[in-house]
Amino acid sequence: xxxxxxxxxxxxxxxxxxxxxxxxxxxxxxxxxxxxxxxxxxxxxxxxxxxxxxxxxxxxxxxxxxxxxxxxxxxxxxxxxxxxxxxxxxxxxxxxxxxxxxxxxxxxxxxxxxxxxxxxxxxxxxxxxxxxxxxxxxxxxxxxxxxxxxxxxxxxxxxxxxxxxxxxxxxxxxxxxxxxxxxxxxxxxxxxxxxxxxxxxxxxxxxxxxxxxxxxxxxxxxxxxxxxxxxxxxxxxxxxxxxxxxxxxxxxxxxxxxxxxxxxxxxxxxxxxxxxxxxxxxxxxxxxxxxxxxxxxxxxxxxxxxxxx
Length: 309
Fold this sequence. Notes:
- The protein is an alpha+beta fold.
- It has helices spanning 80-99, 125-137, 141-146, 154-159, 200-208, 212-231, 235-253, 258-262, 287-295, 304-307, and strands at residues 2-12, 23-39, 44-50, 56-65, 68-71, 108-115, 165-168, 175-178, 189-193, 270-272, 280-284, 301-303.
- It starts with a strand and ends with a helix.
């Protein structure tokens, strides 16, 4: 059995999506595949994770013992990262076992995952894993996400779509709709990898420090900006809307805009994506603006059409 799902870029709604703001998410050309082969040994999982070059970067064996998945310890001493990943894998599979116990009662499985992108890029390693497992087990991916990694679930929605979508949390199921976002000016939009990690928990904590009225007002404003960005037809209006979005989120999480902090002399527009200060940013401009980032040492740059489906 083979499964695959798409990675994501969150263009609008970071942080505010947690409180019901309408967000614009863009599925990307990169994703993660999963190959599953049945084994005779019931309740055993042989796990292997491959990077974008097909090289194994993590492996583990887990087995149901005393009615829960436990790791079968190898002889070598695991690194701290390997221990952390194994712990997370056990958490995921114990939740899968809780939701679909019959799946593991008569067979074991060899599971191999393969990324299309570098895992440090933050383009959806976790969400594509959760979605692929959910498809295999025929369980609710949003529930599995909630019980493991947490988050709004926009990335789960993007994993299953091949077109831009709007995502909005509601009292019931998340509202997900295909968005008519195909900007005529996409040749003036590109993405730059910053090669640094931001502690999203700290930013979320700052965001949560807002009072209820401020949160409600922000949610409405971000939802409105999302609709306007979808409808805009020219790059100058797009830049104005993006800058307004940056200003609102900067105030909400009490962090400086990435342009002010890192690129104050940049001529184009810059927007943070997802967790502020890390992973990718969106920038506007053409070759001269791309060369600006290269001169600063940022060489992982994607044109809009090379990254977005």
